[in-house]
Design a protein that fits this description.
By secondary structure, this protein is of the alpha/beta class. Helices cover 32% and strands 22% of the residues. It has nine helices and 13 strands. It is globular, with a radius of gyration of 21 Å. The relative contact order is 0.12. Bound molecules: guanosine-5'-triphosphate (GTP) and zinc ion (ZN). Zinc ion binds next to helix 8. Guanosine-5'-triphosphate binds next to helix 5. It is an enzyme of class 3 (hydrolase).
Length: 306
């Protein structure tokens, strides 16, 4: 922190990257001023980064959290920095396993997951939403709502208002854009305003942006989140963060790399026998574990061939 003061004395101002245009970022300064600052194309800066700016020199401050996505070739793409919550959006038709994977990915990145069950205006939603709430309601905050009618959206607003900075993930068509529009009334207006900053004469599209919500809280809108439909997680991440295994935080397995199958001294199997973990959750875990293991083995075989 002493550092920050020095930078202040040398004329640098502290701010937050709120939009990323590839070759430039928009910084919101502590004074409330906003300004575009040029960056190198592969600078690695993302929306949510805290920075200091002196003239045209931008320095990134250490990050609290990073949310990234692995692509099919194993490359890692950073999506946003310093988020503290991740909203997993579901709707009728969301593939099973998506929610568990997304919760694991959020927790592994240090973000607290919450669930939005969207399209509750559809008749087929009620039963599914209730069943999902029955399993996850005691594990993570759960918001059944309709982005289209606005029903049920107020508790989510209230949650975000507590000062959370988050983003939504979900498979295509679940209503992430509709939800963003419902929560950020000025969104369309803001997109229009940003295009005025087209001073480079190219790269006019916003890659990613952070929106302050009326009343408090912030949401990041990143096209890259759309591909999060294929949430990529590792076996150790799954074994540590599977929703329903919260008891592991206090009660650990004998082996650090325990996969909770037949290992001696397994805390998950202990909790199963005492009802601290439900059979239903455990069976779902075993299915997902098998899938993640198969994907990792396939990736390894591809690497050996190289
Ligand atoms: N009935 C109903 N339809 C909804 C609701 N929210 C979104 N939709 C519809 O679902 C479709 C997809 O909505 P989007 O907001 O584009 O979904 P998305 O998740 O952003 O989709 P991608 O951009 O493909 O990732 C649109 O036809 C919406 O009108 C809702 O609450 N109820
Ligand atoms: Zn175990």
């Amino acid at each position: 922190m002493g550092n920050r003061k020095q930078q202040g004395e040398s004329g640098a101002e502290q701010g937050l990257i709120v939009s990323h245009f590839g070759v430039a970022v928009e910084v919101l300064f502590e004074t409330g001023e906003r300004r575009m600052v040029k960056v190198k194309r592969n600078s690695g800066h993302v929306v949510g980064d805290q920075v200091t700016v002196a003239g045209e020199v931008l320095n990134r401050l250490p990050r609290r959290t990073e949310l990234s996505r692995r692509d099919a070739r194993g490359g890692v793409h950073l999506l946003a920095a310093n988020l503290d919550v991740l909203g997993v959006v579901l709707a009728p038709g969301t593939p099973s396993g998506f929610l568990d994977r997304a919760i694991v990915a959020a927790r592994a990145a240090g973000l607290a997951p919450f669930v939005v069950f969207n399209k509750c205006d559809l008749p087929e939603s009620a039963e599914l939403s209730d069943a999902t709430a029955g399993v996850y309601g005691g594990i993570v905050p759960f918001f059944p709502l309709s982005a289209v009618t606005g029903a049920g959206i107020e508790p989510l607003r209230e949650f975000l208002r507590q000062g959370h900075r988050g983003a939504f993930v979900g498979t295509t068509g679940v209503g992430k854009s509709s939800l963003m529009n419902a929560l950020c009334p000025e969104l369309n207006l803001k997109v229009g305003e940003l295009s005025d900053y087209n001073w480079t004469g190219r790269h006019t599209t916003t890659v990613s942006s952070l929106h302050a919500l009326p009343g408090g809280g912030e949401l990041v809108d990143t096209p890259g989140f759309r591909d999060f439909g294929l949430v990529d997680i590792t076996v150790p991440e799954l074994a540590a963060w599977f929703p329903g295994f919260e008891a592991l935080q206090d009660h650990r397995c004998r082996f650090n790399d325990c996969r909770h199958r037949q290992e001696p001294g397994c805390a998950v199997r202990d909790e199963l026998s005492t009802g601290g973990i439900t059979q239903e959750r455990y069976q779902t875990y075993l299915l997902l574990l098998g899938e993640v293991e198969a994907l990792e083995e396939a990736a390894q075989r591809r690497n050996w061939k190289k």
